[in-house]
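Reference record
================
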Amino acid sequence: MALIRNDLRVVHGFGRRSDLVGRRSREQKMTDPAAIAAIIDQYLKHGWKLRRVLMSRDLSEALGSSEIFAGADVRPSQYDGMWFSRRSLPDREAWELRRISAAPFAVVEVIPDEFTDQERDEVLSEAEDRMFDAARTKETSH
């Protein structure tokens, strides 16, 4: 099996890995279509393509009939995120999951072209689990 790079990081910001595990109580939901469109535009400007959208019922209700995700595969989810992809090397494609929240977190996966659709989907699913497990972290008394 080929090596796959994954990385949980802050997009357009600075921070240590420990800074990325935000507490749910501090996470601000992003439901403003203009703010979401600005994120999409920024990715498009850098050669990324919006491929998939993970959308909670809350976000779906907030956006109503907005066409903001036109052309993307919109999937119901407990959490909100956007999958972008672009060619990273001649034989690999980078996929980046950007959480739809005020805190700009992302998970990056680099997937070899020889992966089947099923293998790619498994890698992306594992990345979603990592991303949203961090969002599920509960506050502790330390």
Remarks:
- The first strand starts at residue 6 and ends at 10.
- Helices lie at 33-45, 57-63, 117-135.
- Residues 30-135 form one domain.
- Residues 117-135 form the longest helix (19 residues).
